[in-house]
Write a structure and sequence with these properties.
Elements (H helix, E strand, L loop, with lengths): L1 H37 L2 H12 L7 H16 L4 E13 L5 E6 L2 E4 L2 E3 L11 E8 L2 H12 L3 E4 L10 H8 L1 H12 L4 E5 L25 E4 L1 H13 L4 E5 L3 E15 L4 E11 L9 H20 L6 E8 L7 H12 L3 E7 L7 E7 L3 H8 L2 H4 L6 E4 L15 E7 L4 H4 L12 H21 L2
Parallel strand pairs: 5-6, 6-7, 7-8, 11-12, 11-13, 13-16, 14-15
Antiparallel strand pairs: 1-10, 2-3, 2-9, 4-8, 5-9, 10-12, 14-16
Helix pairs in contact: 1-13, 2-8, 4-6, 8-13
Length: 457
């Protein structure tokens, strides 16, 4: 008799789970249908990128983006929209940079962008012989004897064998972040780096760098990958080749700015929070479409979809448009500080900051094995939409400061193969984003939020 009851219980449980999964699949399909048929993310992205454009923290465009985001979220039907004050770095590029490869009397113009946070060159620019290196170890081995008074050229490319291009980016990023410090220690007067891109093109890619305390400051810029190839070839043919560059950037006093926060109030557990967001700022040289206009538009679409379909979440969902991810992460830090100060319980945070390409899955950070297994249990619901990669991975820079508070961090993962063609470069424009890919990502994010809110962690 005991075995019979056990068998019946198993059958009932199986039937219940099947019914629940069927009901969930209906809601997930509704989310995809709604955004693919009449979504707003693509139009919002168009407004942000073409009407406002590049929006580096501290700039007038960043301030415009804050007001735009607040207005759009109010119109989308948020229960509450508010701004969080945050002081951000204020760095300006100034007049367009100039750069040449100099061989004797010949000058070959190459594209260059100052790295974010760099100092300017002297007004007339700087010109010196070039020392090409692949890494810091090679530079240190050369020492002051060979490097003093020279311009150091870091020419280590992103590893083309890495299928996950973010892994390749991470492997090459130290030369951008700290190259100026290491070059300064051996007496160099300037540093240029090969742009962090896995394609050969004529677009230099900017990005942030930081100066170390106690090290003389030297100017730092990035040249395009094609220019890096040409400079390396020229140096092999003529080791006395010189390089000239001029940049006019400056760092001003910190400026006031804001995170934009919109809420759908939870119906059962309003004091538990789910964060969905991306970063509102972008580099100044383009429209900031894939980085991170797409993440902003997708996050706002999550709110709109819940409202349109009448989905009442159990927990409070917050859409957060973070400010200053690119050169300081002040917005992410401030959000986490306020969350701790207000004793807010954040269950999980989902970030979209990897471009608007075809969705592939989610990377999960800070979750216990049982939680990861639970999220992976939704694979069958996501499979019809091409999301198969639900595994451990990075959450995101903006939501990272919530991690120490016990928040599970989730990063939306689109296909990464094309991202570094546009990342931090002047070709990161609205017309490089495919509407359907963008909308599929928004629906994927909304579906995960729906499931995790309904069943918890």
């Amino acid at each position: 008799m005991k075995k019979k009851y056990s068998f019946i219980t198993t059958l009932l449980l199986s039937a219940t789970l099947s019914q629940a999964q069927t009901a969930d699949s209906v809601v997930v399909k509704k989310l995809y249908d709604a955004t693919l048929s009449h979504g707003q993310s693509y139009e919002w992205l168009r407004q942000l990128t073409t009407q406002i454009g590049g929006r580096l923290a501290g700039s007038a465009n960043a301030a415009k983006a804050v007001q735009w985001g607040k207005s759009v979220l109010e119109q989308a039907g948020a229960d509450r929209v508010f701004l969080q004050d945050v002081m951000v770095p204020h760095w300006e590029r100034g007049a367009k940079e100039e750069a040449y490869i100099v061989v004797g009397k010949q000058k070959i113009t190459v594209p260059l962008l100052a790295l974010g946070g760099s100092i300017a060159t002297p007004k007339k620019g700087i010109q010196a012989e070039v020392i090409e290196v692949q890494n810091f170890q090679e530079l240190r081995a050369l020492g002051k004897e060979k490097c003093e008074g020279k311009i150091i050229f870091f020419n280590r490319p992103m590893d083309p064998t890495k299928i996950n291009t973010f892994e390749a980016y991470g492997g090459a990023g130290d030369q951008r972040r700290s190259g100026a410090n290491e070059a300064s220690k051996v007496g160099a007067i300037g540093v240029i780096i090969r742009s962090l891109s896995n394609t050969l093109n004529d677009y230099p890619h900017t990005g942030s760098m930081q100066y170390a305390t106690g090290v003389p400051l030297i100017p730092a810029g990035a040249i395009s990958t094609n220019a890096a190839e040409l400079l390396s070839k020229t140096l092999k043919e003529n080791p006395k080749t010189q390089f000239f560059f001029k940049q006019n950037c400056e760092t001003l006093d910190d400026a006031p700015s804001h995170n934009v926060v919109a809420e759908i109030k939870g119906s059962e557990k309003p004091d538990e929070y789910i964060v969905v967001g991306g970063h509102l700022d972008s580099w100044d040289v383009a429209q900031g479409a894939h980085d991170d206009g797409t993440g902003i538009a997708q996050s706002m679409e999550v709110l709109r979809l819940f409202k349109e379909l009448g989905i009442r979440p159990k927990r409070t969902i917050r859409i957060v448009l973070f400010m200053n991810e690119e050169n300081g992460n002040r917005g992410g830090i401030k959000y986490a500080e306020l969350a701790k100060q207000n004793n807010e319980k954040h269950i999980f945070a989902l970030e979209s900051d990897s471009g608007g390409f075809t969705p592939k899955g989610f990377g999960i950070q800070g979750a216990a094995a049982s939680v990861l297994e639970k999220i992976q249990g939704y694979k069958s619901l996501f499979a019809p939409y091409g999301l198969h990669e639900i595994e451990r991975g990075g959450g995101g820079v903006d939501i990272g400061p919530l991690g120490p508070q016990g928040t599970v961090l989730i990063g939306f993962k689109p296909d990464s193969q094309r991202y570094f063609e546009y990342h931090h470069a002047s070709n990161d424009k609205f017309d490089t984003v495919n509407q359907r890919e963008l909308e599929l990502g928004a629906a994927s994010m909304a579906s995960l939020v729906y499931l995790l809110d309904k069943y918890g962690l």
